[in-house]
Amino acid sequence: MTGGASGLGRAAAERFALEGARVVVADLDHTKAAAVANSLPDAMAIGVDTSDAAAVDRSFDTVLDAYGRVDVIFNNAGIVGPQTPLHETTDKAWREVMGVNADGAFHVLRRGIIAMLAGHGGAIVNTSSSTGLAGKPNMTPYSFSKAGLVGLTRAAAIEYAAQGIRVNAVAPTAVMTDLVAGHIARAPDPEAMRRLLETQTPIPGMPTPEDVAAVVAFLASDEARWITGHTLPIDGGFHAQ
Description:
This protein is α/β, with parallel strands linked by helices. The protein has eight helices and six strands. α4 runs parallel beside α5 (about 140-160).
């Protein structure tokens, strides 16, 4: 799983390990990835910049050399980028977000599908966002990239269904990760920011990384064997309004 050193990726790594999986914790920060892997019973850590296609290819080669197959991919690495109005967004900021959220997700998906085609199929879960389903101000690059993942998920699901590869996505609302906690703490009025985040969905409060990991584990399991091409909001009912 990419972005596995913290947040949703770490929670998913812990959940999959609990289910008995051999887990590969892949992250830009190899030190943190190793710390997560070392806390699990049967795990490997890999440092990888998913925006670098060659680095992604090398990472899959390492995994295949060690384990011989890839059954599940949580394609989760992503960044938010600067939060500015669209007309103030620089080319550099746009490309940084696209490099990870769009190009990186594509690199992992492409190489993962190659591995699964050579094996016995598998399940892929991409991390989109509620911001990819409903736009938010000052987050244009992020919204664009996460909306693109919805289309990428559908296209790949249709293209590889007959080969036994399922592709789905999750679209969480704001999740109480360390990153979000830091965002709250840095706000001019942290309590007001917390209240805003906790009241933006019909179900009050915020999901935890473990809540998202449970959905990812379901979509990757045989219990979801007839589910492909879907983007599942984890949004407390926001998109039902």
